[in-house]
Amino acid sequence: MSVQSPINASFEVDLLILNGTIVSPSDLIHAPASDIAIKDGKILCVGALQGLFTAKRVIDAKGGYVTPGGIDSHVHLSQQNSIGAVGDKFESGTRSAIAGGTTTVICFAFQAKTDESVLPVVEEYHKKAASFSYCDYAFHMILTNPTRSIVEQELPILVEQGITSVKLYMTYDALKLGDRQILDVMIAARALGMTTMVHAENADMIALITEQLYEQGKTDPYYHAISRPKISEDEATYRAISMAELIDAPILLVHISSAVAAKHIKDAQTKLLPIHAETCPQYLYLLSEKLHGENFEGAKHVCSPPLRDSMADLDALWDGIANGTFTILSSDHAPFVFDSPMGKKLGLKDGVSRFTAIPNGLPGIETRMPLLYKGVQAGRISIQKFVEVACANPARLYGLSNKGSIAPGYDADVVIWYKDNDTDFKPFALTNEMLHHNIDYTPFEDMEFGNWPKYTIIRGNVVWARDEGGILGKKTDGKFIRRVKAGLRQPRNKFVNEWIPQYRGRVPSNYE
Ligand SMILES: *[C@@H]1O[C@H](CO)[C@@H](O)[C@H](O)[C@H]1NC(C)=O
Ligand SMILES: [Zn+2]
Predict the structure, then answer these.
(1) FRET pair for 181, CA 20 to 30 Å: which of 295, 305, 337, 375?
(2) In the chain, domain spans
């Protein structure tokens, strides 16, 4: 068999994408240099390719942006601690993901406090996801009981299995860790090259306020927002940063909702500490007034941290995306059906509201990319910044080495958008019926959209074609992705505090 040169008009590729504008975190590549040839699930080359190949399929991107597939790195699907409540499992959640331009999700495997080993937990989540995922997927491990044997023996195994991040909670009685436990995990994670994700809210402040509100009979959904003030997030964020500074360990602060917390993060980054942060569309668009509402509807907007009060809060978060404070924009898709006694209405018993019993979280996996794109159209961020926080950074930070970039050798995960003012696209007001999740509402109902992914392509397969039948992919398409060690911003000082143990000799080479 002869070896064929790819530069040969008779060489057949699987898919050619022509005439688009390719976006990276720094650049725009315009036609005619922006053609993409895809073969065997990978990007073969990018350039002025017309006439150089034949192709099984050609898509004309018609001057629209061509971005890497979205990576949603904060997604709760089929999660064991929300059994009983009604939410999305892998099948409906990932179906919704691809319809909104997301090609990879990083979901959580959840350790209950009673689980003495996390290895069976990982197995269980593999079973929940395998053959039920429309898109590629990976796992983070939520640790609620980091015993010595888990930290010392099992975390290195997780890294070998491609799970290179853990998530810790500073709040929620069933989940929270004390500072000493957090420090111990950070030391281990640092030595293994894992990223530690932290949900930062001060649990005792919240418990105190909640007790007072209940004594006064203030138990409607709105009081959820009152019970978790910004200062509880600000304090815990600063405390998490201080712990990470002490250990010189890379962390990512999840779903930041307050301007002061964002400022703590920015200040830490200015000191070159390895601090990353994430925010989510709900904190860019929605205010706590949504927690009022007839017939318990406010419960639809209960999430933690809660939605904040003022436009100034929203503006600070947009600024934080634009100025690099936020590494990542994720959905924190944590969906619960509203109209079910096992869903949001767990917080309504015999006509009496109890906000503490409302499951926390919002659906948003499908709307994440289009909502961020609205920020591009509104002039809040550039399209390059869009790609950075929604596609490229989640891949780099979490070690998805073949994803997040449109370049030769990468997985051919691509989203094609409509050209702005394209006559093929009619701006519309969102209704929940348009979405593909298994939830009976969207917090973004009635919001206007001026663009939406026209095509979503995963490893070269068109899995979503908005004008040609919608969902084309199958629930068996998604693959588990083993992640490599993470790193956008790494520890800087390899001789940090001399008392930090060189964790059983295993200092990852990328720290040196
Ligand atoms: C960047 O954004 C953060 C978060 O909103 C803010 O605290 C900081 O002041 C901003 N920095 C600049 C230089 O605008
Ligand atoms: Zn979450």
Answers:
(1) 305
(2) 69-396
